[in-house]
Amino acid sequence: xxxxxxxxxxxxxxxxxxxxxxxxxxxxxxxxxxxxxxxxxxxxxxxxxxxxxxxxxxxxxxxxxxxxxxxxxxxxxxxxxxxxxxxxxxxxxxxxxxxxxxxxxxxxxxxxxxxxxxxxxxxxxxxxxxxxxxxxxxxxxxxxxxxxxxxxxxxxxxxxxxxxxxxxxxxxxxxxxxxxxxxxxxxxxxxxxxxxxxxxxxxxxxxxxxxxxxxxxxxxxxxxxxxxxxxxxxxxxxxxxxxxxxxxxxxxxxxxxxxxxxxxxxxxxxxxxxxxxxxxxxxxxxxxxxxxxxxxxxxxxxxxxxxxxxxxxxxxxxxxxxxxxxxxxxxxxxxxxxxxxxxxxxxxx
Length: 349
Hints:
By secondary structure, the chain is an alpha/beta fold. The chain has two domains: 10-254, Type I PLP-dependent aspartate aminotransferase-like (Major domain) (Aspartate Aminotransferase, domain 2), CATH 3.40.640; 257-347, Aspartate Aminotransferase, domain 1. Helix content is 36%, strand content 15%. It has helices at residues 6-9, 12-15, 23-26, 58-68, 80-92, 109-116, 134-140, 163-172, 226-235, 243-253, 256-277, 301-310, 335-347, and strands spanning 75-78, 99-102, 120-123, 145-151, 176-180, 202-207, 220-223, 283-286, 293-298, 316-317, 327-331. The strands form two sheets. Strands 1-7-6-5-4-2-3 form a seven-stranded mixed sheet, sandwiched between helices. Strands 8-9-11-10 form a four-stranded antiparallel sheet, with helices on one face. Helix 5 (80-92) packs across helix 6. The chain starts with 5 loop residues before the first helix and ends with a helix. The mean pLDDT is 96. GO terms for molecular function: histidinol-phosphate transaminase activity; pyridoxal phosphate binding. It comes from Flavobacterium fluviale. It holds the Pfam family Aminotran_1_2. Pathway: Lipid metabolism; Amino-acid biosynthesis; L-histidine biosynthesis; L-histidine from 5-phospho-alpha-D-ribose 1-diphosphate: step 7/9.
């Protein structure tokens, strides 16, 4: 069983770090209606954004905590999930010493962030049916392995990893197991958030960019134990999520019925696209998906990609990724967009 200890995986300089204390961090927030703010060197003329935003994004966190049955102290928000992931690297991985494990084919930013932070990335390929090779992963672990990254549902493959594989990694790895759930809202599987109190080494990242339709505001979410979140809070920039992003997130999160309708529509259109792809001659394999995209093996990915570009349709060519030779990734669009895609696919020769 895993014997996780936050102190053994946190970088020494982070453990001893005294975090920057912003003006609004020092101010105890109570009834602010009649307060005069002369603490943060702001422009005093009101325009809606002349004041610094809440550095802890408490209003956004309160909604997320209520919706997901978690505590606000178990949530960290970032400028997109990429900032959240970068903070995890900087808090727990010693440059030029530590290593992480990723499972290609997967989201490319894990590798990019490893390079930026001078951290070795040990790649263990998924199986041919895109599942983790748990024994090989654990064999690759040494005393300097700090994080295992799992994207589930996975990008670009679209499938979720088996519960048994994830549990085995959580129980047998002394570092952090980060589960990237960017696409969880399109899956029938339950989020691993329900296990957040069971496994102290479990970290879950989510986003408002996919199912919530807020890619333009850049808001990433991290759920973890209070001890992990407290370390990340030490090193995050003081005002990393701007006021406009917080306002727009609150507005959208309060309209959950509309979000559910949009998710249902995307799933319905996903099923329609999957059926239509069965009738395309040059499609050789359609991979199971629990995301808002589908990975498809074709006869010649480069050729088909170029043909669709000429028709004004932009998809993703994944043929250079491991286990994805001649594979294209189609994001699920609106009913009208999917109709155009299907029509053009049928006309290609």
